[in-house]
Amino acid sequence: MLRASENLGFFQVVNHGIPATVLEEVLGAARGFHELPKEVKVEFYSREPERRVKFGSNFDLYQSRSANWRDTLFCVMGPEPLDPQELPDVCRKKMMEYSKQMKRVGTTLFELLSEALGLRPDHLISLDCAKGHAILSHYYPACPCPELTMGTTKHSDPDFLTILLQDDIGGLQILHEFQWVDILPVPGALVVNIGDLLQLISNDKFKSVDHRVLANRKGPRVSVACFFTPHLYPSTMVYGPIKDLLSDDNPPVYRETTVKDFIAYYDSKGLDGNSALIHFKL
């Protein structure tokens, strides 16, 4: 895990304790929502940043040079518990169960990542890295001309950690040593990637790597991503490089910021292919 977090920013996890039926059912529930009639889904459509459950396409539609071939159901599950009644009927029960499982797995991963940094197991948790999470259900329809668009353009994630469940279609790629590398689906596995905020507080020890999703003639492709971040929840917590990791030979690389300010900058620039971290470098 240490080597993967330092060099690749991505790894896959098996033996995570989530029953295969739970994984299959949440993918099915996500697909079930996206394939509802338009007049049902439109009730959840919103571009309001503060709304906790919203359906949309291309959050950065007015910032990016091109649109992505993807729809998303975005659900903020914490820190404040989400009222299940706010979720669509078709995926409510499965989403709540998956959220509970993500909280458990995420907490374990943060403990292991803390130890990998040479810190106490609870160090990252004490920084509220696992305090909140959002679940994003992505739907990539079959594309008649995949060479003309992208499922998701090149980007890194504006969170501490992302746990992704993907179906068997494939298309996820990471940028490693200036080449795009496929992250092939492994049955029952979860794909984990380091987020921008974890790279920031680890002072570049861990890497938040650029990734993308290809459009495909096959489909639809369905994935469910869990972003560990308090998102827009009011917080006085300020994040900068962890002091225990700094030394004369390893001075701070980034200035301090809040999660809210980091996300505001990330959203304002859109998925333009450039890391938001550059803006916060000293």
Q: Which key phrases capture this entry?
A:
7 helices; alpha+beta; 11 strands; four-stranded antiparallel beta sheet; 282 residues; seven-stranded antiparallel beta sheet; globular
Task: Please tell me what the overall shape is.
Answer: globular
Helix content: 25-40%
The number of helical segments is 7
Helix and strand sequence: HEHHEEHHEEEEEEHEEH
Specify the oligomeric state.
single chain
Strands, total number: 11
Major β-sheet strand ordering: 1-9-6-11-4-3-2
Structural class by sheet pairing and helices: alpha+beta
Descriptive report:
The chain is α+β, with helices and mostly antiparallel strands and about 280 residues long. Helix content is about 25%, strand content about 20%. It has seven helices and eleven strands. A seven-stranded antiparallel beta sheet has the order 1-9-6-11-4-3-2. Strand 7 and strand 8 (about 180) form a beta hairpin. Helix 2 (about 20-35) crosses helix 4. The longest helix is centred in the middle third of the chain and has 25 residues, at about 90-115. The radius of gyration is 18 Å and the shape is globular. It starts with a helix and ends in a 13-residue tail after the last helix.
How is the secondary structure organized here?
Blueprint: H1 2-7, E1 10-13, H2 20-34, H3 38-41, E2 53-56, E3 71-76, H4 92-116, H5 123-126, E4 133-140, E5 152-155, E6 161-166, E7 172-176, E8 179-182, E9 190-194, H6 196-201, E10 211-213, E11 221-228, H7 259-269
Antiparallel strand pairs: 1-9, 2-3, 3-4, 4-11, 5-10, 6-9, 6-11, 7-8, 7-10
